[in-house]
Amino acid sequence: MQISRPPVAIIMGSQSDWETMKNAADTLDALEIAYEARIISAHRTPDRLVSFAKNARDEGFKIIIAGAGGAAHLPGMAAAMTPLPVFGVPVQSKALSGQDSLLSIVQMPAGIPVGTLAIGRAGAVNAALLAAAVLALTDEELADRLDTWREQQSASVAEYPVDK
Ligand code: RP5
Q1: pLDDT tens across 111-146, in order?
Q2: CA 148–ligand 1 middle distance (angstroms)
Q3: Which atom of ligand 1 is nearest to the CA of 73?
């Protein structure tokens, strides 16, 4: 039987990454985009990674958001094994504040792209928004929801600062 997955997979290297990656999930929720979130460690569960990445497209996923910290090989290794777009989120590490995660994810050799976002929450939110923008190319109702989300964001920014 063919498994039908939601359009977005959010994968992360550890339970400890969920606090960051939940921001991607919350953003997808706000845009009514279905997703599946999974813990897949490039280092601790390599077989799980191979199985996931090699089958992701056939199972129906369209976009992968991959978050990891430290020696963050997960996004790059996933991208090596799937033609789906992979957006990488560097999780803020304790030792090096996420600089290690960022450099591990962003410096992919030519030929295997990972769209790399900012460290931490901003990167997770923006990965979800990029996923939404890609899916909206072929989904007019989602395009409308994304337009509304952006309009609401603009409307929420006060024009003048106030003393607090
Ligand atoms: C990475 O190591 C994970 O993505 C996580 O950010 C980091 C620490 O993992 P844990 O020791 O919390 O499992 O692989």
Answers
A1: 999 999 999 999 999 999 999 999 999 999 999 999
A2: 35
A3: 14
Nearest to 132 by CA among 37, 21, 34: 34
This prediction's pTM = 0.96
Q: What is the CATH number of the domain that holds 111?
A: 3.40.50.1970
**Could you list the residue range(s) of the whole structural domain that residue 37 is in?**
8-155
> ipTM value of the model?
0.96
In degrees rounded to 5, what are phi and psi of residue 76?
A: -65, -40
The answer to the question of residue 163 being in a domain is no
Measured from the Cα of 101, ligand 1's closest atom is 6
Residue 17 belongs to some domain of the structure: yes
Distance 111 CA to ligand 1 centre (A): 26
The total number of structural domains in the chain stands at: 1
Distance CA 16, CA 67 (A): 11
Q: Which residues 6+ apart lie within 8 Å of 34 measured at CB?
A: 6, 7, 8, 28
Q: Is 162 part of any domain?
A: no
